[in-house]
Every structure is written in structure tokens, then in C-alpha cells.
Design goal:
Elements: E1 10-13, E2 16-19, H1 23-29
Antiparallel strand pairs: 1-2
């Protein structure tokens, strides 16, 4: 399994929240629409929630 670390912002789309994967990251990992991914969430110290 290949891993890649990047910072992403959470956006609102409809009634849901979404994390958008940058195109270059998706291309590097060979991701395409419909693929399943595992997301591990870690909030950095000092970052605030809105």
C-alpha cells in the first residue's frame, strides 16, 4: 500500500463535509472516481476548529 501525506481543508458540499484530494496526489496514487480510501484524521496541535 502506498502512502502520501498532504494537508487538506474540509469543505461543505450539500449537507455533508468533504475532503478534496489534490489532482497531483490522486494521479500519483492512481486514484479514480469510485475508489475507496482509508482516511486517518489527526488534528495538529495549535489548530483551531470552527
Amino acid at each position: 500500500m502506498e502512502e502520501m501525506k498532504f494537508k487538506a481543508r474540509i469543505s461543505k458540499t450539500g449537507n455533508s463535509l468533504a475532503v478534496f484530494i489534490p489532482r497531483v496526489v490522486a494521479a500519483t496514487l492512481g486514484l479514480k472516481k469510485g475508489d475507496e480510501v482509508i482516511i486517518i484524521i489527526r488534528k495538529e496541535e495549535g489548530e483551531k476548529s470552527e
